[in-house]
């Protein structure tokens, strides 16, 4: 055999042979000349006896093959040596051919391939083609190089006869590796080492020779996968093996091992597929995982696919379809890369995918081929040597027996997600690389496992999107955890999205819209290039940091890119593992704090709940994400789904027009107790409120409005609740001191009010109060739901049973609420309509005062009236809870009630002692006018409702239950309990209660208005007889008493009766509780209805005494001066 000088180590000089010689040079060949003229081949063939046959020799005439020929080949082919050769060498596997016939056929082919004179036939048949291919036209003739060149360029041969000539010769030579020029020399040692077969002629039959190459190919694959015991094949042999595979890529007949392994499968699956241009290969690849596919054929197909993965030229159709694009985009021009790498299928796919993602044009035929091979990579993990090498342990431990249809790859993805066990970093990297090569984000159909699992969901939820569109994956993510999603699809989708989320380039829409921004702001490189300074996972972080910048903060993303960044953030919120930073830095904390939180969305909520306990890096990541959510709560996809009804009803305008200002969450908080609000939404909104209190940055609107004020007035304070207290205290102090210029800015004061109102709705939003009262809540309010300030109201109603710490906190809270009633959530909620009716013009600080003034209106809502009464009861327990009284009586309280103040502690109620003290001084008419006015109002209100008198409540609870149960049970209190106690004064056994009733009687003498029963009975008489007398200081009461004594005046019977009862009560009170001193006596006289009579009698007595002394002289004996001086 001639030495193959020109042919590179990969080239098979299988075509330095000639199967066809025309006896007459220059004669024009008919189209069928190649087939027919084989009969007249002028090539000697050695028979068994060594006698040479010459011109006109026919294989059919040889006795060694006559029986096999008669048995296997149709008669019309006997006169054609080529037809006979094809028939016998393509026999079925179970059919045996005589050894002598095998030997004869092999010698015939060998003689054909070693005679250089047949090159003249190639010159004749391929004359036009040779002239067109410059490389072949310059080849030296007579040494077999010309045919080798034609084979090397056969994809460019368009001349029919030449193409047929090369194709027919190829099928002959590929039947035996020993006929390939130089192949045996290059691979001799490797064949022996790998035990792939014998070199000796005739020892193996025709079929086994294809197995030799198949054996070498498998050895090459084992070496690439670094399998245990793999033999390192020499480079020359490697190239020869790959060249054989490449030259056999267009017609599966040329891969003898695969041909015999898949002949029946071809008939079963690809019967109508014409041979040539790799069509049969592709057809078989598509049916590789069918149940009816034989295992041997599947194994042979897998081996060929692995060779394609190592060199794309082994796929004829791919190499042909993409040849122009590979050259156009310089995909094989990287001089810094070894040829073996740039020939790999993965490199070709990455290079061309990069061009597509950059918006360049790749011809449709090439894109179709790329799609097929990307699908192939996703279906069979074993086609990626790195996966086989680095993920071997994970496959054996978790994913064995799942080889088909991409199930193993998805199993590895599940391991990579951390759902099953830890994964080796090299395996993780190999998976990430494979996902980038296959690029399933661009077309979900590439991932067969996902496609099959999600077919029903796509047909129902995503039917409006074009099949194969990248938005299908986004549509599936939008329906994750919805009723339309099926479990298997959910798993496959999350497994794939886990890896797509770790490289922003794998989302084609994001890459398309943001590649300019990423290059401008994040200094990224090409699609298939990476940088250690800016790894793929860090680029998205860079993008979303710029997405939410204000104009003042610098460069921002383009509008289209920002939309896509928001879409990705919405998807990532569905599963904590879709956020690479979160999973990387928070794995330890997730295991420590959130191992039981397995439902969707719970893990992030858990991390937010334990924010203070997280390690620094995790805390920063969770904090940044929470800060981002505060600006755009729509990132929280699950929350938005749960809140859809309330958004549509109350926040649709905000949701539609929101421009990242936190308005939507504010709207949800304000409408948290609407009927459209469901439990899931309410819980989610409350959770976000609870998270916000951990750091003022988590409240976007508050942060933006008060950032400068916080830095100036509240530095080093981080917790939102502390910042709110700090700023609100500053505002309150400036207001009380009448500062000309408030230190807190107007926009901050406005937002501060919003934050204060929100915090008043749930006790958990005030951590110090909640922590102080947690024990009491569990004991007294365990069945009361949080929200709507219900727990706070429960604690208020049970304040006598609270622990000291909680009691102190509640007192402080009530003090703030009374100073600013707008912060009283329950009052504002229950009386919302009444405020609109009666108090639209009232200042927020005077809201409760306005409601109190309209409490007894016929239009007042009963529930609101009841709530107002509760607040009045609270105010009367301590003057500090009544800002108006405190201001009006600021001079009177220390003057008359200092002894009570001295005994009081800072944060506990005085149980109405100061108010009672002021009431007594009111009766003594010693208060200042402003204070007197306020006490009069309190007296009037408490006279109608005994519950408004704390001291009466404290001392008379048992007596009221015993003596006045019906009156106390009345729904509407109009003073009947007080009247009952007055009538039953003699029956009261408790001294403290008796004293309080006596005080009531004493107070009623000072003003008729504090005795509602008497005032109601005598209203007409006051109008007729005392209209000119101003109220107060007992004046109208004295008027009525005088009218009662005046026989000329006729009072109303009811008034007369009530007045007489009061006189009897006062008389009894005077006996039971005589004056304790001269001042008390004087006050009793001054407040007595018979004041004028008593004063007249006292005056008369004084006059009589004066006159007596004047007339009668000295009574005592005069003493001499001398005696005085002694």
From TrEMBL:
UniProt keyword terms in alphabetical order: Glycoprotein, Membrane, Repeat, Sialic acid, Signal, Transmembrane, Transmembrane helix
Lineage top rank: taxon: Eukaryota
Q: Where is the signal peptide?
A: 1-26
Compartment annotation: Golgi outpost; Membrane
GO molecular function terms noted in the UniProt entry: fibroblast growth factor binding
Q: Report how it sits in the membrane.
A: Single-pass type I membrane protein
Q: Which PANTHER family match?
A: GOLGI APPARATUS PROTEIN 1, SELECTIN LIGAND RELATED
Q: What is this protein called?
A: Golgi apparatus protein 1
> What organism, scientifically named, is this protein from?
Esox lucius
């Amino acid at each position: 055999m001639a030495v193959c000088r020109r042919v590179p180590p990969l080239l098979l000089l299988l075509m330095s042979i000639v199967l066809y010689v025309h006896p007459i040079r220059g004669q024009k060949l008919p189209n069928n000349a190649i087939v027919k003229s084989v009969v007249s081949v002028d090539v000697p063939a050695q028979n068994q006896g060594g006698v040479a046959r010459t011109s006109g020799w026919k294989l059919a005439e040889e006795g060694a093959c006559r029986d096999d020929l008669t048995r296997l080949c149709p008669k019309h082919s006997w006169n054609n040596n080529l037809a006979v050769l094809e028939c016998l060498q393509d026999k079925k596997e179970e059919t045996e051919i005589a050894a002598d016939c095998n030997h004869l056929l092999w010698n015939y082919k060998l003689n054909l391939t070693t005679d250089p004179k047949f090159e003249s036939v190639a010159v004749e048949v391929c004359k036009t083609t040779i002239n067109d291919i410059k490389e072949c036209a310059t080849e030296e003739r007579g040494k077999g190089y010309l045919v080798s060149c034609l084979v090397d360029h056969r994809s460019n041969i368009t001349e029919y006869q030449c193409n047929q000539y090369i194709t027919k010769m190829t099928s002959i030579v590929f039947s035996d590796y020993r006929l390939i020029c130089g192949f045996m020399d290059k691979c001799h040692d490797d064949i022996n080492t790998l035990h792939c077969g014998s070199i000796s002629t005739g020892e193996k039959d025709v079929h086994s020779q294809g197995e030799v190459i198949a054996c070498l190919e498998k050895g090459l694959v084992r070496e690439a996968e670094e399998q245990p015991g793999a033999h390192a094949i020499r480079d020359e042999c490697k190239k020869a093996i790959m060249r054989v595979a490449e030259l056999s890529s267009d017609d599966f007949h040329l891969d003898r091992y695969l041909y015999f392994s898949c002949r029946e499968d071809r008939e079963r699956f690809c019967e109508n597929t014409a041979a040539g241009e790799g069509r049969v290969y592709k057809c078989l690849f598509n049916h590789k995982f069918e149940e009816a596919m034989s295992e041997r054929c599947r194994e042979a197909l897998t081996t060929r696919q692995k060779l394609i993965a190592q060199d794309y030229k082994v796929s004829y159709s791919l190499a042909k379809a993409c040849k122009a694009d590979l050259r156009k985009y310089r995909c094989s021009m990287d001089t810094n890369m070894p040829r073996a790498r740039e020939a790999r299928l993965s490199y070709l796919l990455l290079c061309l995918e990069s061009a597509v993602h950059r918006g360049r044009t790749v011809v449709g035929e090439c894109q179709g081929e790329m799609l097929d091979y990307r699908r192939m990579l996703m279906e069979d993990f074993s086609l990626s040597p790195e996966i086989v090498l680095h993920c071997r342990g994970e496959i054996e431990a978790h994913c064995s027996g799942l080889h088909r249809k991409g199930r193993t790859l998805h199993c590895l993805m599940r391991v990579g997600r951390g759902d099953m066990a830890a994964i080796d970093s090299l395996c993780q990297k190999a998976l990430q690389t494979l996902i980038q090569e296959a690029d399933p984000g661009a077309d979900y159909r590439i991932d067969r496992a996902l496609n099959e699992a999600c077919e029903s969901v796509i047909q129902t939820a995503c039917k409006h999107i074009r099949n194969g569109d990248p938005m299908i994956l986004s549509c599936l993510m939008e329906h994750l955890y919805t009723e339309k999603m099926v479990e298997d699809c959910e798993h496959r989708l999350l497994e794939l999205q886990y890896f797509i989320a770790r490289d922003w380039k794998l989302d084609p829409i994001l890459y398309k819209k943001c590649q300019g921004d990423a290059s401008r702001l994040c200094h990224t490189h090409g699609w298939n290039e990476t940088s250690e300074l800016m790894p793929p996972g860090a680029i998205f972080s860079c993008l979303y940091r710029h997405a939410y910048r204000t104009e003042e903060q610098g460069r921002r993303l383009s509008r289209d890119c920002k939309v896509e960044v928001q879409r990705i953030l919405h998807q990532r919120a569905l599963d904590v593992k879709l956020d690479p930073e979160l999973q990387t830095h928070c794995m330890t904390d997730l295991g420590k704090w959130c191992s039981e939180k397995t439902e969707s969305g719970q893990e992030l909520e858990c991390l937010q709940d334990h924010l203070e306990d997280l390690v620094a890096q995790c805390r920063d990541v969770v904090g940044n994400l929470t800060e981002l959510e505060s600006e755009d709560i729509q990132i929280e996809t699950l929350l938005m789904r749960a809140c859809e009804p309330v958004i549509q009803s109350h926040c649709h305008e905000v949701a539609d027009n929101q421009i990242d200002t936190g308005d939507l969450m504010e709207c949800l908080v304000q409408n948290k107790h609407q009927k459209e609000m469901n439990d899931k939404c309410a819980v989610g909104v409350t959770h976000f409120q609870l998270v916000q209190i951990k750091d003022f940055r988590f409240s976007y609107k508050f942060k933006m409005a008060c950032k400068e004020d916080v830095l100036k007035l509240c530095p080093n304070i981080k917790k939102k609740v502390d910042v709110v207290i700090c700023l609100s205290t500053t505002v309150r102090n400036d207001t009380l001191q009448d500062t000309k210029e408030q230190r807190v800015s107007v926009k901050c004061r406005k937002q501060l009010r919003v934050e204060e109102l929100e915090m008043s709705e749930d006790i958990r939003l005030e951590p110090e109060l909640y922590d102080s009262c947690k024990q009491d809540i569990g004991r007294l309010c365990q069945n009361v739901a949080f929200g709507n300030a219900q727990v706070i109201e429960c604690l208020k109603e049970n304040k006598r049973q609270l622990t000291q710490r909680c009691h102190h906190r509640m007192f402080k809270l009530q003090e703030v609420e009374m100073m600013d009633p707008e912060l009283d959530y329950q009052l504002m909620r229950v009386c919302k309509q009444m405020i609109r009716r009666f108090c639209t013009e009232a200042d927020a600080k005077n809201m409760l005062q306005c409601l109190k003034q309209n409490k007894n209106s016929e239009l007042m809502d009963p529930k609101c009236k009841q709530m107002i009464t509760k607040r009045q009861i609270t105010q009367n327990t301590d003057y500090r809870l009544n800002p108006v009284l405190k201001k009006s009586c600021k001079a009177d309280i220390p003057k008359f009630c200092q002894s009570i103040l001295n005994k009081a502690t800072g944060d506990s109620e005085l149980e109405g002692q100061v108010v009672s003290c002021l009431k007594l001084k009111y009766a003594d008419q010693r208060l200042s006018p402003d204070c007197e006015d306020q006490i009069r109002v309190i007296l009037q209100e408490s006279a109608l409702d005994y519950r408004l008198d704390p001291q009466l409540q404290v001392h008379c609870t048992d007596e009221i239950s015993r003596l006045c149960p019906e009156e106390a049970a009345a729904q509407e209190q109009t003073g009947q309990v007080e009247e009952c106690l007055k009538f039953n004064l003699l029956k009261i056994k408790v001294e403290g209660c008796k004293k309080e009733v006596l005080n009531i009687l004493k107070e009623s003498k000072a003003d008729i208005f504090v005795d509602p029963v008497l005032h109601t009975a005598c209203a007409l008489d006051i109008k007729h007889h005392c209209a000119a007398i101003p109220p107060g200081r007992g004046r109208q009461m004295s008027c009525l008493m005088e009218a009662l004594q005046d026989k000329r005046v006729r009072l109303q019977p009811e008034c007369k009766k009530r007045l007489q009862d009061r006189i009897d009560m006062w008389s009894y009170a005077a006996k039971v509780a005589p004056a304790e001193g001269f001042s008390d006596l004087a006050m009793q006289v001054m407040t007595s209805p018979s004041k004028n009579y008593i004063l007249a009698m006292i005056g008369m007595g004084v006059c009589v005494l004066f006159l007596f002394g004047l007339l009668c002289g000295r009574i005592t004996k005069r003493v001499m001066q001398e005696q005085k001086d002694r």
